Amino acid sequence: MAVQIASRVPALKNVATRLRIDSVRSTSEAGSGHPSTCCSAAEIVAALFFSEMRYDPRDPHNPDNDRFVLSKGHAAPILYAAWAEAGILSRDELLNLRKIDSDLEGHPTPRLPWVDVATGSLGQGLSAGIGIALNARRIGSDYRTYVLLGDGETAEGSVWEAAHVGAHMGLDNLCAITDVNALGQAGPTQWEHDMEAYAVKWRAFGWHVSVVDGHDVPALLAALEDARRTKGRPTMILARTVKGKGISFIEGLNGWHGKPLRKGDELQRALAELERQFVPEEEPAPPPDAPRTARRASEHRAAAGTIDPPAYRVGDSVATREAYGEALAKLGLKDIRVVALDADVKNSTYSEKFEQRAPDRFYQAFIAEQAMLGAAMGLAARGAIPFPSTFAAFLTRAYDFIRMAAISNLNVKMAGSHAGVSIGEDGPSQMALEDLAMMRAQPNITVLYPCDGVSTERLVAQMAAHHGPMYMRTSRPKTPVLYGPDERFDIGGLKVLRESADDAATVVGAGVTVFEALKAYEHLKAKGTAIRVIDLYSIQPIDAASLVRCARETGGRVITVEDHYAAGGIGDAVAAALAPAGFTVARLAVREIPRSGKPEELLDRYGISARHIVSAVERGA
Amino acid sequence: MAVQIASRVPALKNVATRLRIDSVRSTSEAGSGHPSTCCSAAEIVAALFFSEMRYDPRDPHNPDNDRFVLSKGHAAPILYAAWAEAGILSRDELLNLRKIDSDLEGHPTPRLPWVDVATGSLGQGLSAGIGIALNARRIGSDYRTYVLLGDGETAEGSVWEAAHVGAHMGLDNLCAITDVNALGQAGPTQWEHDMEAYAVKWRAFGWHVSVVDGHDVPALLAALEDARRTKGRPTMILARTVKGKGISFIEGLNGWHGKPLRKGDELQRALAELERQFVPEEEPAPPPDAPRTARRASEHRAAAGTIDPPAYRVGDSVATREAYGEALAKLGLKDIRVVALDADVKNSTYSEKFEQRAPDRFYQAFIAEQAMLGAAMGLAARGAIPFPSTFAAFLTRAYDFIRMAAISNLNVKMAGSHAGVSIGEDGPSQMALEDLAMMRAQPNITVLYPCDGVSTERLVAQMAAHHGPMYMRTSRPKTPVLYGPDERFDIGGLKVLRESADDAATVVGAGVTVFEALKAYEHLKAKGTAIRVIDLYSIQPIDAASLVRCARETGGRVITVEDHYAAGGIGDAVAAALAPAGFTVARLAVREIPRSGKPEELLDRYGISARHIVSAVERGA
User: Fold this and answer.
1) Closest chain A residue to B154 measured between Cα atoms?
2) Cα three-residue angle B558-B559-B563, rounded to 5 degrees
3) Collapsing DSSP states into helix, strand and coil, what is residue B42?
4) Inter-chain CB pairs, A–B, below 8 Å
5) What is the C-alpha radius of gyration for chain B, rounded to an integer number of angstroms?
């Protein structure tokens, strides 16, 4: 360690003490929160924010700022305290912690410009850090990414997905620190203070590992410097710490997780003890170093959404999953912010079409859906437009990440292929029948479900052109192209495919069931009954006005048909849209656990084929 | 290896060849499936089923049979082939693979009595194996549990959760085998044939590790014997194999994942090659050894559901999460099949009350929700009644496991605490606002949401008394006890709490919103308006008849109010129940990403407090 840095040590120790004081005060004021968790991390945060990291405190949006992810999100008060110390916030503001009118929430969220991804669901920060580190590569920046984990959260498998992916990608611009304070919420953590139990695992996963005393500032600074000099792989600094460090009557004690000190004597005793820990400073800590690169403009929105018209002709046959891959590849050539991630199924989701044309922006996460989603979150937070894809069924594996992406309102564009029973013989484990429910439940996730190649391609472009978390559901079977290449598809729209003044009912389909509805139309027409047929390609937001109009024009008889379970999908979406106008919906959906079989057999067996639509119309008409 | 076993080797080699032939034939006949994945595992499966494992092929329900979990579920054809070899199935039946009228599905499901848990979503089998191995401890059996993993799936974090938990629990009755064939679906697996890359990780996680040639029968038998003799920790046998082994023109080639051999020349060439691989047998393989223990009765249903009446009095104040823990503890004393699992939040979910009274049936999974759910699945498959609990928000982490538990129709009883914005200051990362949508989407999951201590206790008993996957949502805040100790709560019921002949509307609440509805009732009553108030404690199944009756009696005006996002929750459930009768629902729900604040502030800010109910009634009444 350079002399220049050694002389900062007393000042950094004092920073750590101030961080403890602020964390304790703000949580006592709030009456809830996790002061003991903050205290174990005080030297780590001091060393990172006031010696190691390079960033401009006045410029949170500088693309070259070093980044910090607080994976142990319940230590939020110390993050806020660090910002106060850096002059980003006033100290008074810290006392608004957890109040309804303050953005200093119980766990950090990107309402605050220095937060990239919301944390608080443990085990997610490292995956996000991978995405942030990948983004540095993408934009050619030498910013570094730091992730602070708790020890307890390393029981989460998602951490080991990230461990593998980070090492596989050789992310030497990523440095993680585990605050090994040996105490979880309900008792000792899995490996307590056995530092070797941690070290052997991280080494086995290919990381450079340092083990340090997490309250020893020079040791931390040396380990951070060592990480910076390590090439070809990420570093994990395992910091042995004491929970509640600095407050003798809670240090290392179980039962102090998530418990503020009581205002009054208890708080005053703690503060008095902490105040006594200040040391004389050789020199004050200097302000943080600026980013290594001069301020440059953030990437502006390029030509996203303006790809050439689809090459399909009406009547061609193409699976929407394949059209998805094609659209993504076209988009990738137009806009360098677009990146793709996949989980060993690129030849099924057709994200391989993107890889073929933009290999340096394609990231293989192997069979690790959480790491894939987490990396996409980090990439999105830093300006990329990531499209993570896998079988729609396996996005359920990452639902907690999706939930946190929604809380963060990140610009992540998810694609799930192989939706519904129409995949056929592979059976229920491979069929997504709850993905619409899962995605729709999040109020800010856009949910798209195109039925043909043209609408797929147009909607992929729309996904890139608009901000926010989005999901596209694609299908395995080939389907006929219905739309001409110039047809326009807006998010929140629908298409009326068949319409007459005499329609006996409105049938709302999406994806494969659009074609069942069209078959039913022909069948009923032959018998003299007209029906209205809707392609509901945008499920959330939904075109309520058009649905109400159609309901009104078809005697209030609306039938939905979906290759999805009955709860939470298209039927419920349409019902909620129609309810204010007083219309109800008859729902055709999959109502039991399905089995293997041929696609057409399964559509029929589970009640969503043309025959069932005809019956429903005839019952109601 | 004993001489007796050595002399079986040629016969076992021939078994492996027959398993290959059957896997190739059945997938070619089906026109889909994964023959190359079966071929790499043929010697492993032969050694397990025809030398190592002890089971009675005529008695799938024998509680002391050794158990096998095919975590790499896409190798289903070789599992079915093994059963045919054991005489459990006829060989002809194998040719019905993947047909709609056959239980030989694309991936194994418990429709087949030898399958404990459905597989096909990779990375789940080892957690299930942990549960099955724990069950052996619970019932005092010396049966052993074997899990066959693919190499690609070990990129899933869930595998490393299981690695940690299995070692932590010292499960020496568990033996896993990884079929390291080095090829995934879309290309090489993460560590290809670097056996040491696998070995170092499993050793680091505390497992006994053997590395063998997976096509060398004596080596496999020796490794299995070594595993059986290893005490205090589970074993991982890393078997180096060749994908497509035995068929020269697909061996080790990319592009043959999930691809059957074409009937005709291609198939015939493969079969001819395989036929040539038969060797002279010294002695035929004997039938499988019987279980070590004589057949005993399966556990019969004991006193589940008949616990003593709740001790709460009307007007007491208790959080439903605490009442859950109390009920579980009472149940645990009555019924030894009941077990509890938690993920480091036992002092928040109150599962610690169970631990205090039945510590040997409480399993700590640390912060590893997937391993917790997977272990619960395995326990349930073998006759236990597991109650895994964590914050409801963190059950999203295990949604893919929940999905597979539903496909398996397992008797898993999930409990999620800290539902909704009513948790307050911790903020959105800790608030479950999509759990009802997630659970309801699965058509066979029972969803319960009690509002007070008595209903919670009664419903926990009901959960144990009835078979199938179930979910109970509990709340953080204390709520008043509404019901007397003798009140009865049936799954699929509801309670009408306020009712008159003049009700202007029906207000349907559940959990914390029941009390908002009751406040609204008082407020409106003072202004001269009567409303009907319903406690919808059973959301799935739902008492549609009572809801329709109430709608009819209150002029068709129905308002739902829920501490959950708008899509997929109570509003949608009630709307679907009322739709056939032509009634619609006005939904009060959380419609944006919430933030930190006090519980009552948040209920009000997000539109689900008494004040909003009053407005909704007044708008509609």
Assistant:
1) A367
2) 150
3) helix
4) 361
5) 27
Residue tagged active-site, from B369, B434, B516, B562: B369
Question: DSSP 3-state assignment of A524?
Answer: helix
Edge-first strand listing for the sheet containing B506-509 = B495-498, B532-535, B506-509, B558-565, B586-590
Using the Cα atoms of residue A485, residue A487, residue A488 and residue A492 in order, give the sign of their dihedral: negative
Please report the pLDDT score of residue B287 as a whole number: 84
| A33 close to B (CB below 8 A) | yes
Residue B147 · residue B177 · CB < 8 Å: yes
A254 touches chain B (CB under 8 A): no
DSSP A261: P
Spell out where B525-594 has E strands.
532-535, 538-540, 558-565, 586-590
Catalytic residues of A: 369
Whether the CB-CB separation of A50 and A13 falls below 8 Å is answered with no
Residue A407 sits at the chain B interface (C-beta within 8 Å):
yes
Q: Kindly tell me the burial class for residue B619, based on how many C-beta atoms sit within 10 Å of its own C-beta (0-12, 13-18, 19 or more).
A: exposed
Q: Which residue has the tokens 């304790």?
A: A24
DSSP line for B368-402 = -HHHHHHHHHHHHHTT-EEEEEEEGGGGGGGHHHH
Residues 97..136 of B with a Cβ closer than 8 Å to A: which?
Answer: 98-100, 102-103, 105-107, 109, 111, 118-123
Q: Do B186 and A367 touch (CB under 8 A)?
A: no
Distance of CA B256 to the CA centre of its chain: 31
How far is Cα B118 from Cα B48, in angstroms, rounded to an integer? 20
Q: Are residues B157 and A152, on separate chains, in Cβ contact within 8 Å?
A: no
CA–CA dist A14, A366 (Å, integer): 45
B31-79 pLDDT tens trace: 999 999 999 999 999 999 999 999 999 999 999 999 999 999 999 999 9
Alpha-carbon distance of B5 to B78, in angstroms, equals 23
Task: Taking residues A1-30, report their average pLDDT.
Answer: 90
Note the Cα B477 to chain centre separation in Å.
28
| B540–chain A Cβ distance below 8 A for any pair | yes
CA-based angle A36:A255:B311, to the nearest 5? 140
- B442 in A contact zone (CB under 8 Å): yes
Are B576 and A583 a contacting pair at CB < 8 A? no
Q: Does A96 touch chain B (CB under 8 A)?
A: no
Give yes or no for a contact between A98 and A326, defined as CB atoms under 8 angstroms apart.
no
Q: What share of chain B is helix, strand, coil (3-state, %, to 5)?
A: 40, 15, 40
Q: How many CB atoms lie within 10 A of CB B383?
A: 15
Instruction: Please state the pTM of the whole predicted model.
Output: 0.98
8 Å CB contact of A106 and B596: yes
Dist CA B275 CA B269 (whole Å) = 10
Burial A482-507 (b: 16+ CB within 10 A, else e): bbebeeebebebbbebbeeeebbbbb
Tokens of A511: 């994806």
> Given an 8 Å threshold on Cβ–Cβ distance, is A568 in contact with B441?
yes
DSSP-derived letter for residue A248 is T
Rounded average pLDDT over B348-356: 97
Q: 3-state SS string over A58-127?
A: CCCCCCCCCEEEECCHHHHHHHHHHHHHCCCCCHHHHCCCCCCCCCCCCCCCCCCCCCCCCCCCCCCHHH
pLDDT digits (tens, 9 = 90+) for B216-248: 999 999 999 999 999 999 999 999 999 999 999
Q: Assess A352–B contact: CB distance below 8 Å, yes or no.
A: yes
Give B397's contacts in chain A (Cβ within 8 Å): 121, 123, 156, 158, 399-400
- Tell me which chain B residues have a C-beta less than 8 angstroms from the C-beta of A602: 100
Judged by CB atoms within 8 Å, which residues 138-177 of B form the interface with A? Answer: 152-153, 155-161, 164, 168
